Queue: 2 jobs
Job 1
Amino acid sequence: MLHAETSNDLMRQIIRTKKAFILRHIMVWAIFITYELSLIELTVGLNASLVHYAFFYLLNIGLFYFNAHVILDFAFFQTSKSILVAAIFIAIEIVFYLLIKLQCENFWNGESWLSLSFTLSHGKLWLSNIFREIFFIGFSTAYWSMLYMIRFKERNHAIEKEQLLQKSQTLELENKYITAENAYLQNQISPHLLFNSLSFIYNAIHQVSPKAGNCVMLLADIMRYSLINSEDNRTVPLLDEVAQIEKLIELSGLRHEHKIFISFQKKGRLKGIHILPLILITLVENMIKHGGVGDVTKPGKILLDSQENFLTFKTINEKRTSTLYTRTGIGLKNIEKRLANFYPGKYTLEIKDETEDFIVSISINL
């Protein structure tokens, strides 16, 4: 009976997780489509029926998931020459999708189904459709890369944690468990697949959209920085952490059309100082994700003060009334665990949840 109840609970948990996953995807697509249609309406005006737009958006969404869960799954998990196979199949995918798209356009315009006559206007239509395909394929590849990187990381962490828990009776293995836990909190599994995919995305889209290409390269730099510093006993120059914070701010600005406002003030001696990596940048990421930093009259503030062997880092942001992200506090808890493991008795972490502002302050005796 107990086993059956446990199985039922597990099944219900899986169903809830799948429903939440599907709901998040629906919300993201709804926001994306609403944004695009609103932009079209405000600039050139909608020149077709909503049914017309709905059909072609469904076609593009189908391309997004087909590329991620059919082509990339097959190329990277069923073949030995993953990059080459993926490139070939994506090229074929682009051709077939273009033909389907053009035939559908002919249907909507009342033309012959097999008409592929080429004029200057047709050439512009072909070119715009190819650019649209590359756009959805690029972001589909990014989605696939992040999805499987997270799954791979969680699976490996679960296996490692299980092995260490079985032998945690000795002090040596207990220390290994702390090291493994910190490595997990720091998200430091080396997903070479991610960088291969990001390089492919950059090569595919940087000539079409320099802005999107710049975003990909900034993301790759930040991810590479986090992966290089994978050892728990390794510190990094403070200047490196500061440089990554500035890249994160720049990347967030590009994502939000430069509608985020953050002031980053640095005082004291930064050169020659070493700290535990990814502590400061995680606080900034948390501020951008959950805080209100979209008001130019009240920007988010980052204050860094390094005096001799004492480091103070503070983020101040206006509280956001609504957000797409659920506040779990996991990020701040992970930071506190890492600080406690590496700077025992030599740090303070203060969190102030005030009426209008949210303030996080860290002080470390280096």
Job 2
Amino acid sequence: MITYGGSLPKALEAAGQLARDGIEAEVLDLRCLRPLDTAAIMATVGRTRRAVVIDEGWRSGSLAGEISALIMEQAFWELDAPVARVCSEEVPIPYPQHLEQAVLPQVPDIIAAVSHLMERS
């Protein structure tokens, strides 16, 4: 799993739950987005042969899309499955907390993406 910022605690929680189910997930925290640590991303993909990019931005025009493109350009032949993205819903982010949580990526969304990726490989 590749993520940053507010999605990191959710990714770590998802990794813990996946570990209980026998899926060992590596979490890469992109602490700096510019310059993007491409070497760390490629190293993670090289070790795991899979990538799930978690981003609180929208799927279209997001950093997750840029990271996915970099992986496809530089590590396509190392992948055992397509790159997966877990992003916010394509709606304006609402102010009430319960609605905000409904549109942002959550732990069950991350677990579902990883599980689906494992099934595809």
